[in-house]
Amino acid sequence: MSSKELFKLNPIKFCLAMGLQIIAAVGEVVVDYVLTLQFDAAKNRNLSLFLTWTLIQLSSYVMVFLFYNLAGIIWQKLIQNYLHLIRQELTDHYFADSQKHAVSAVQNRMTNDLKLLHNDYLDSFRYVVGMLAGIVGVAFSLVTFQWSLLVACLIFAAIQIYLPKLLDKPLQKATEKVSVANRKYLKTLGDWLIGLSEVRRYLASDKLFKTIAENSGRLEAANIEKEKVDQELDYLNQLAYSLGDVLIFLLTGFLVVNNWAAFGLIASIGNFNGALFGSLQGVANYGGRMRATKKLREEIFVAKKKIQSEQKSNLEQAVSFSIHNLAIDFRNGEAVTFPDFQVKAGEKILLTGDSGTGKSTLLKLILGELQASRGKIQYFNQKGEKIQPCLLYTSPSPRDPPPWG
Ligand SMILES: Nc1ncnc2c1ncn2[C@@H]1O[C@H](COP(=O)(O)OP(=O)(O)O)[C@@H](O)[C@H]1O
Ligand SMILES: [Mg+2]
Known about the structure:
binds adenosine-5'-diphosphate; 2 domains; single chain
């Protein structure tokens, strides 16, 4: 998942949303700029100029919020389209990779992980673009008043951008922990609820409650941990912001008193400063959030990769098979041997035997889910030729080690 993929999906919508976001952000700067001019007009007792600037201020406000919200709608449409595509690609991959997947892991990927990326990456991207535009607008405005104000602001900008980097790693770790804990919780729920009637029959509710409570507790702890890191990040940012605010106001007062900057600036510098630091804080914050999703995005990129199944398309469907000297030795010493037999195309077979004689094992061997220790299974196509069939399980997944391994 990346902003580049999102752009490629629909360049027009992408640019439209970003364009509106940028114009709205610049519009906010215009509102602050006009405040300086309003104050100067008021100081000069020029009512008609004051009213003109006020009208411009009002129309800017109307445009700013309209454009922000329009950008939000277009962006959301684009994101939903993108997520839909990713879910399809994930499904295709799960279908084609011939591996076993725990239901809970797939559910977590398709819901929780994608939601995390939607909030922390895709939404953040839009905010960051707007905020960057705002920063450029404010910087430009400040330099038209007094270059030293811009220099002062840039110094604080550097401090602000550096600060959250200190918390980059812990935030990434905490985000990952929430995902892992959630996956485990879902798996536990799935595992236990599937056998709920057994749990009832053997009165094992204590164990059920205990296991579910334990996993829920871990999820709780992971969420609290993430919140803690989030809050620490906020605190650092706010501290840097307040410090910059006070010092810049001091500098402006000095410039205005010495007649080096327009009088009205004393009224609007607070707004400029607020906009600048707010945007910087936002960029640092949302940027940090975006960086924290890096690993998850790479994971999803791999998980949705198209599987090249050239080999498989050459594989034919088996219609009959035969078994020779087939045997399997399990690690625990259990061994099962099977008699030789053949199943012809279209034949119906009844497989019977006491519990534990190897019926399930045989089916697993035929499907390729288990590998034989000795002997072989041969598969034939419609013409009776020996073939290499497309088996359900080609190789055991590294994530789910087979029970005998
Ligand atoms: N993963 C395994 N590890 C060790 N032993 C196994 C495993 N799976 C099956 N077995 C053993 O193989 C024998 C056949 O089991 P199974 O195929 O499940 O029998 P059935 O389905 O006919 O009841 C049993 O003795 C069982 O204990
Ligand atoms: Mg069985």
